Structure of Nitronate monooxygenase:
Amino acid sequence: MLPSILNNLTLPIISSPLFAISYPELVVAQCKAGIVGSFPALNAREPDTLEDWIDRINTQLAVLRKETPHAIVGPYAVNQIIHASNTRAERDIRTCIDLQVPILITSLRPPERALIDAVHEYGGLVLHDVINLRHAKKAIDAGVDGLILVAAGAGGHAGTLSPFAFVAEVRKIFDGIVVLGGAIATGESIFAARALGADLAYVGTRFIASREANAKDAYKSALVEAQAGDIIYTDAFTGVHGNYVRQSILAAGLDPDALPESAGAKIDFSATEGMQIKAWRDIWGAGQGVGSVDDVDSVSEIVARLCTEYRGARERMLG
Ligand SMILES: Cc1cc2nc3c(=O)[nH]c(=O)nc-3n(C[C@H](O)[C@H](O)[C@H](O)COP(=O)(O)O)c2cc1C
């Protein structure tokens, strides 16, 4: 049984945190559409800005819930990258706990028990994202409420495991919340994620091509144009393997078929104007679900379409 904040959604989706793209406007639109919105804490360029963003989201969602008491308004999540180079992590986590952010999504290192206990104290949840079983086991041992399985084909720093293999292996050892991500961009895929044993789908790329996303028009149009075969998996840009749109690599004057190896470059979340930002600004991250992105729509239109597709899939399967 899912905790109540994840049980009462328009569709079982967490829209994934997107570096440099998910800002409060996108998050509030996602929650308003009845799904879980999210953003990475590092998108707020200063720790004080993070506090302002969370305050703003809390206020806007409270107003929505008051004005439309019968509408489904989803909760939101803040993503924390727990890595030695993210020197803000401790302060950002404290801000999230003080302001009672409903869901924390942790990445890279599993969260400490004290963090999980502090979030549980106000009724929040901690989900941790992983790309393999070894990391999943570490997060389970740490006591997280849920695992986000980032499978092959996902946008950003994707894994390489088939979702079929990954969900089955995790479900053998974990009966908590399982969220599946990677190239999920249609209602049929969301239904399939549930059929595999996941509780919710993690959807990123589909929302980059939304009107509310903080991405250039050219980026959004490139997603509409691209197919799965245009997604290049490389560690050349950040030192960690990720999926990027071929057209943006070409536009940067590089040959997508002859990219240099990362040469041991280390991922770094401290630099505000360094490789990280540049990689995500000029070289566009996206998952293999791009072939199902045919338009740039508003979040509410996207969610309405996903709902129709999801219901259609369910009817076909269950009659
Ligand atoms: C442009 C871009 C930026 C991303 N930034 C983050 C991030 O800051 N933190 C994070 O945990 N995941 C990040 N991700 C990964 C997503 O959270 C998620 O795993 C992925 O979008 C799911 O696959 P999909 O894009 O195929 O739907 C990013 C993905 C993309 C495409």
